[in-house]
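Ticket #4471: structure output looks truncated?

Reporter: J.K.
Steps to reproduce: submitted the chain below (251 residues) through the standard prediction queue, then opened the result file.
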Amino acid sequence: MERETVIKIEQLSKRYGAQTAVDNLSLAVGEGEIFGFLGPNGAGKTTTMLMLLGLTEPTAGTVRVCGYDPAREPLKVKEVIGYLPENVGFYEEMDARQNLRYIARLNRIPDALSAPRIDRLLAEVDLAKEADKPVGSYSKGMRQRLGIAEVLIKEPKVIFLDEPTIGLDPDGTNRMLDLICNLSRERKMTIFFSSHLLDQVQRISDRIGIMIKGRLVAVGTIGELAQRGLGVEAGESYTLEEIYMKYFKEA
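Returned output as attached by the reporter:
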């Protein structure tokens, strides 16, 4: 069954003076899809994400997130999206529940509504037993999971994740990847994430886009990219790293 389009980008460009950071990008991402966004440093991934978040305006082209224009309707977009940066910031002296309550209030969610939601989210990210500890005592993995709970407090339709597993140990990585998959499969949330850890991208992504020098050079399922880039037939083995390096060398 075809997915409803949630993110639609058409002929999007962003220039800073003579430098083109994003060059004529067109892309559609569907409801409930986990979309992995790859590329070397300086490829235009962060700039693209900033335009999707409404934090910078495009030079040309259009963006729609859940039907809204991030540049013209930033508040509407912020109501339906969540964003988890690589380094999540919290009030260190406050516990997890207090941090989430503060975020809920910033989003104008009444305490009576947020309280049961916070309890549910802390259980969902496996932090219920640590909910009353100061966040300053949390490990990197615990902080990342609390970051997911913070993103989910307003029940967004789309989540943007920037390097969500960087610095995590194997257990923390597995928990984070499982949580991302559950959000997609069980809640039909759209997950748009960037990462340099190709084995993890291969593990959870429905489709992948590869950005190099500001241009989207390839997009599709891993199988489609392997067939087009490597000539791999069904049943043959390959890795996302092999696919990525093939497109990188040809760009």
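Triage note (M.O.): checked the attachment and the full token line is present. The domain at 5-87+160-250 is CATH 3.40.50.300 (Rossmann fold).
Status: closed, working as intended.
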